[in-house]
Amino acid sequence: MKNWISAFRPKTLTAAVVPIIGATALAASKGIPLSYQLVVFALFSALFIQIGTNLINDAMDFKKGADTSERLGPKRITVSGEASFLKVMLAGSVFFLLAILFGVPLVISGGAPIIYIGISSIICGYAYTSGPYPLAYRGMGEVFVILFFGIIAVMGMFYLLTHQWTIESLILGLQIGFLAAVLIAINNLRDINTDRLANKNTVAVRFGESFAKFEIIFFILISFILNLYWFQTSYFYAGLFPMFLLPKGVRIATRIYHEKPSSIYNQFLAQSAALQLLFGILIVIGFLASK
Q1: Where does residue 202 fall: left (phi above 0), alpha (psi -120 to 50 degrees), or beta otherwise?
Q2: CB 282 within 8 A of CB 242
Q3: Tell me, what's the pLDDT at 32?
Q4: The pLDDT of residue 71
Q5: What is the pLDDT of residues 42-86, one digit of tens each?
Q6: 3-state class of 210 per DSSP?
């Protein structure tokens, strides 16, 4: 069980949690009565989609040779031999099925837009490393994360609770999406050498180590720069509170800039996941303080 839980990559599951709590707090700040049962269903559905994606990624990276005993990241369950390729693929599919089941109440409440979001999320979760055009192997990983763990997750959740599409939910989705993309960008930079050998053409492989470092720095800084939007709205505190994390973000960016890709990037990955979670918590407090 411990090995399977590790395969879920729990340190990165903040990417599924933060969009839900952020969108919920933004909706609550509008004074609209909310269904917190829908929030719980959405949270579990998002978590199951990410776990399913992680497991499929685990199996497919092993099959395609991107994960070997030489990888610098945490041990993967397929390449270690602790579970077979088919068993891991089956487990990933089970989590996608669970995501669908937990998504049924969301569809009943939100209608067609939620159907489109749910179906596209699961298809792209599978297509991240599988299928004829695996996104991660074509340098589309960051775009996938910004869209599905940022813009679509936040705007979709906000719509589910309010039946509104707003510029506020878009800005919040961008902030959360960019911080989520930091996780995949750090992961890809750490694995640049093994990915290159496996023809996994991530952004880091395509454009090189220096570009990948500046990409990470950009993602971190733009998330904080976008707080300027909240300062000129009624959500002043939503812009202010996350800014207390800017020094932490700068420290992470600085260390990544000065360090060559190595196992130390596992520390940066954990720190960036904590940064996103704390950013989400503080902006939630900011929204609620602005009610």
Answers
A1: beta
A2: yes
A3: 82
A4: 60
A5: 999 999 999 998 898 888 888 876 666 566 666 678 877 788 889
A6: helix
Do residues 261 and 209 make contact, with C-beta atoms less than 8 angstroms apart?
A: yes
Please say whether the dihedral angle defined by the alpha carbons of residues 261, 57, 136 and 150, taken in this order, is positive or negative: negative
- Residue/partner pairs of 227-235 with CB below 8 Å, 24 or more apart: 227/175, 229/171, 230/171, 230/286, 233/168, 234/290, 235/29, 235/168, 235/286, 235/287, 235/290
Is the Cα torsion angle 190, 192, 195, 197 positive or negative in sign?
A: negative
The angle formed by the CA atoms of residues 202, 85 and 90, to the nearest 5 degrees, is: 100
Cα of 93 vs its chain's centroid, Å: 19
Q: Name the residue with tokens 């952004």.
A: 203
Extents of the domains making up the chain: 2-289
| Tens-digit pLDDT profile for residues 195-229 | 888 888 899 999 999 999 999 999 999 999 999 99
Strands (E), the chain: none
**How far is CA 245 from its chain centroid?**
19
CATH code, 2-289: 1.10.600
What tokens were used for 141?
């990983």
Tokens of 195: 């990915």
Nearest-angstrom CA–CA distance, 204 and 212 = 5
Which DSSP category does 196 fall into? H
pTM (two decimals): 0.91
